[in-house]
Amino acid sequence: MEIIKTIELTRMFGDFIANNQIDLTVEENEIKAIVGENGAGKSTLMNMLYGLLKPTAGEIYIRGEVVHFDSPNDAIKKGIGMVHQHFKLVPSLTIYENVILGIEVERKIKLGKYSFSLPSIDHKYEAKAIQDLIDRFQFGLKSTDIVKNLSIGAKQKVEILKMLYRNVDIVIFDEPTAVLTPQEIKAFFVTLKELKKQGKSIILITHKLQEVMEVSDSVTVIKQGKVIGNRVTKETSDKELARMMVGREVLLNVEKKYQDYSKNEIVYEIKDLTTYNHDGIKVVNGISFHLRKGEILGIAGVEGNGQSELLDLLTGLSQSISGKIIFNGIDITNKWPDEMRTQKIGFIPEDRYEQGLCLDMSIAENMIAGHHGKKEVCKHGLLLTQKINEKRDRLIKSNDIRVSDCEGNVSSLSGGNAQKIILAREFDANPELLIAAQPTRGVDIGAIEYIHKSLLNLQAQGKSILLISSELSEIMSLADRIAVIYKGQIIGEVNGINASREEIGLLMAGICERKPENEVR
Amino acid sequence: MDFIIKIFSDSLYFTGPILLCTLGGLFAYKANMINIGLEGMMLFGGFISALILFFTHSWIIAFIAAILLAILLGLLFSYFGVTKKANFIITGFAINLLAIAVGKYVLAALGSIDINVISDVTRQMAAIDLGIIGEIPVIGPIINKQSFLTYFSFILIFICQFVLFNTKFGTYVRVVGESEEAAKSIGISINKIKYLAVIIGALLCAFAGYNVAINQLASYTPDITAGTGFIAIAAIYCGAGNPKNSSLYAILFGLSRSLAVNLSLRIGTIAGLLEMIPYIMIIIVLTVVGIIRKRKTLYRGFLHE
Amino acid sequence: MKYDKQALKQSGFKILSMIIPVLIAFAIGAIVILFAKENPLKIYFILFDRSFFRIQGLLKTLHYAGPLILAGLAIALSFKAGLFNMGIEGQIISAGFVVAVLGYLWQSLPSIVLIPLLLIIGTLVGVIVAILPAILKARYNVNEMVVTLLLNYAIIQVLEYLTSNVFRDPSSGYVSTNMIGQSAIMTRLFGSKLTMFFFVVVVVFVIFYYIFNRSKLGYEITAMGKNRFFAEATGMRIQRKIMIIMLTSGALAGLAGAGWMLSEKFSYTLDFSGTPGLGWDGMLIALLGSHSPIGILVAGIFYAILKTGSSNIAIFTNVPAEIIVLLQALIVLFLSLKMIIKAASKRASKRKEKN
Questions:
Q1: Integer CA distances (angstroms), A201 to A80, A218, B270, in order
Q2: Subunits close to C (at least 3 CB pairs below 8 A)
Q3: 10 Å Cβ neighbour count for C320?
Q4: What structural domains does chain C harbor?
Q5: CB–CB of B286 and C143 under 8 A?
Q6: Could you say which of C219, C234, C354 has the minimum Cβ distance to residue A337?
Q7: pLDDT averaged over consecutive 10-residue blocks of chain B (305 residues)?
Q8: Are A141 and A198 in a shared domain?
């Protein structure tokens, strides 16, 4: 039986069509995967099903009945729940308070046959009720624990509990494995199957095709806001799905020539770098690696294993408590970001819109950022407007940045073009070393190819690149050597040319049977 | 001894309005809508109640008028700050300016320097005699003969503590302040909660204004609030918005005011400097918190705040 | 960056966002005036005619505009960088007080030495008062808005004590310091209230026009205000910039206070800075001028018109001069709505939804 059916569901943001006449069918008690690239419109679709967005046109049917949701509450009433990619939990509250938020249980007094509700939350009863629920699904949590102290996997369980407590029978998961370690992913699949066994229907939004093949019953592929096709999982392959997602034969790996760099001089060396975070945890714990001239070193790892913190150290945004960073023989440990730049180190930050660009400034202003004190654009403390505009026009042209209005702000650009501005800016400063973090996150396939080619071009000019990415395939196709980061440490290193996914995957999960043979100093 | 009793008795007297503003402003603070306009809302409360009492000679009508104006101001502040997403710091600031301006304008229009309502304020309104309790040695004279609203303000501490931690509304206020995303995802109406939090604040500030203008001074001038709203903000910040802790600071600030007033009779105007205590105190508290936080972090600048 | 449709449209928006709150405030003011049984148009005519369209009135307005423009620049400098320096008022009155005391004590010095010296000292006092919040913000990220706001109250208490005790002029009937010496008083020009101080302000204004619009520092201030993470990550050294900005802002405020003392007040009284105070006026001016130097110039003059006009209203009509304070408060209220920024943020949120 069809539990969800949408007919020509459409959603527009201004002129932009995020969802274009989507027909989706979910059968009862199946695990339905919805796949598509970033920006294909998966999240928009789910937000409509969950009442967070209203459709511009089209209908949603739940068990054959037309529904109109004004808020998530309406969706929950109809039995639809959602577990978001970014958890919507209140850190300072306990597990049970989070689970029960919005439907708190209040104390009651009975007077004969009348019963009155008091405006007083019954904390004891709540804690017990949630503990019972936890035990029933064998989640292994304690309901009175404070959420901010939980691991990511546990937080996800709290999100699932929120839905289970509300008795939903359709659960939507938005990119549930993005933040999980491989083991947590395994455990999550067990949870999924358990939910299915208990009669729930599940929608799984993802772009990881292997997971789709492993756990789903059927697949719907979305591209540019449209449904491209539906498949039964058993009758398709990840290759076919990938072709449907992208719309052409996918060449995910750019062509790369591997060379032996082991004779080249060492340009960048990290020795035993360590730092704490706010909670006093050693998030970067004695990391050492080196980079030779002309080489690309990839740092792989599940997100949240210290990459961001390492990056902050390397860019000068935070300080290490011990260890050294040496660049071209000069000690640059704990130097400031501007000092790093004068040493000819370029940066592509992890969060493009937070650290890389200023959305509300013009393209030209963004193109000089970090280099705005250089003689070419600044004299006696005054900026040379004409020179800056010339630079902008030159870079727009040479990097094929598509802008509708070159005077406009960066906020008017797409993700890929915005990233190209950062690339153009950093490459134009002619760095000896480029530190690129998640360089293709959230950009479309075309821009990914361009960015990958640009990085390889830079390498061809004899520059070194440190590539930090959580996309394993990206690292595998670009890096000459791959170091794997796990819990703030480099747990192992493999050669790029003959690396296997399995080997790296084990390292990412923290499984390392042998001592890494060429662990670097 | 009498002098000591006077100091403590006066500190209750001064604490009343500070407490009311503190407990009121705390809800908005917890909902992440810090209300700089507490001072103005209090001043408006004092103004309207004195004005209405002056013309109607009925404290009930005056009190109701203060409540209505407070709701209106609360609605105005939240309409600007929540619905229209205005810069609510500036909105609050504007309410402070407006309160002074309206008062001054009306006084000028009436051709008077104050609104004197002494003839309409009965002894019972100014100070309630607690009878037998008042005869307890030391404690009695300290707590006796305060206005109803002053007593109420102390009871309110426990009410607020209960509301904030044991009711749905209080929980939602904290959730909205801590994570709007979480609130939204389970269908809490963020705007409604913020409106309510602000209006509660406006109401309590109006009570504070009424307390000062009617119960305590029996007259209105545009300077009767004397920075009480800002002291309340200081108390809220120092106590991190927890009703019990913030109230403790409010009481402390009331005490320092009482010291300033009482000591000035003995040691001269230099005692006025004691009034600086709340201001200096919050700066010290904020600094200490800042230093501790900075010690813990290795981040530079203001990333990962 | 200029001469194209987009920029024109944007500056059009800017001007509109300046005018709309003023118009709404004036409309509400008109209703209040009607209650006082007067003709609002007549009142507003008197307000502008006598303080802008007649030469003596205009010179008086410009005289008042001087410190206001400085205060507006001081606020705009910090607000633009996303720093809420509310301490301008405290810095102004501190500078005014110190200059009043020294202007009395050092009156034997010749004008040519004394006046520039006092202006410089006033500026330094502004800087000194700004040091504490600047360090607290830059080093420990202590909320600068709360600190500066409360510091104002503390300063008021201290100055009240000093004025009414240590430095009180015993011959004066009210609380006041001694009058500054003749040599410290800036000479009036053209038989009007205008003094040389106005031209000092003009020079400072031109310098800051370039700092805001053309300089590397101005660029960094804008970047800080718009995206602090971006500014830090691209190596703009926010902590250092915070110090520079807060102290410069204090210097401007100090200069304003010193000028106000030497060209208008001549002795420190408890209402030295008026109601609601020059610093707060400066905030309104900065907001009204949407933090751009030209906007501040216009807003400062507009505001000075209100100031000169208020006495005329009191003299020539039955409406209390306090109507002006009411108008000012209303303007601030409607300014908080920030009409243009709303349009911009709508675009931004649309983009976010897309992703």
A1: 9, 12, 75
A2: A, B
A3: 22
A4: 5-354 (1.10.3470)
A5: yes
A6: C234
A7: 87 94 95 91 96 93 96 94 85 91 91 88 80 80 86 95 93 92 84 95 96 92 88 86 92 87 79 78 82 77 53
A8: no
